[in-house]
Write a structure and sequence with these properties.
The protein has 282 residues and is an alpha/beta fold. The protein has a single domain, classed as TIM Barrel, CATH 3.20.20. Helix content is 49%, strand content 10%. α8 crosses α10, α9 packs across α10 and α10 runs parallel beside α11. The longest helix is centred in the middle third of the chain and has 25 residues.
Length: 282
Amino acid sequence: MSFDYINALLKKPTTRTPIWVMRQAGRYLPEYRATRKKAGDFMSLCKNPQLACEVTLQPIDRFDLDAAILFSDILTIPDAMGLGLYFSEGEGPKFKNPIQNLQTIEQLPTDLNNDLTYVFDGVSTIKKALNNRVPLIGFSGSPWTLATYMIEGGSSKTFANTKKMLFNEPKALHLLLDKLTHSVIAYLNQQILSGADSVMIFDTWGGVLSKQNYLDFSLDTMAKIVKGVKAKHPNIPITCLAKTVANTSLILPIRSVMVLASTGQWSWVMCKTKLAIGLPFR
């Protein structure tokens, strides 16, 4: 089966420019809101393979999109590590047991797939239901992005605790990133075995880092993930959604590791972006 989305990632000819939409399954759809109400809460929806399948397919049934993306959350890995993920209305994700010091990092488990079977069951259920209509994208958060949530205890505007660890305890932060890298590799490999046609790494908060710190604390871990996934699945495309990375000088380093997904990032002036990757701007 030939898909425009997969062909584009593999630099093969396509019949059109393929698109998927960030949060294409979400609150703007009345059918999603109905399913969410049926589930009770967000994580109950994520952890129910049948309902996760239902909401994943809702935008595919409604719009002419080129890919389905697994309905889940990037924080499933920290939750499986025992941090106690929960969602407060209007406040976003929070953790009952945030990372506080090196000792808590050392105690974190890394072999998590047995606690994430609901994700893999969701992937296989969605893949079967799609019946080759469009490809299925699996995903994970980047180790850096996951670490920020784990250290801050949830969302943050300043990332003060994470930056404090970066500058004062870099070895502790690297240990946390190493553990997350190990878990993400296994997580994405199992998603592929369950039916994902491509996987994406959401580097949501890479943009809060300086260029050098981005290379050392974010891109380095993603390069290890790509190597670990490609070792088992060499033909599966891997993309990065660098949502907050505004420095166009990082485009080529990211592209040297994997495909950089275009997100219409407002901070990337398109002419500069094209010039950064050696394309003429017209």
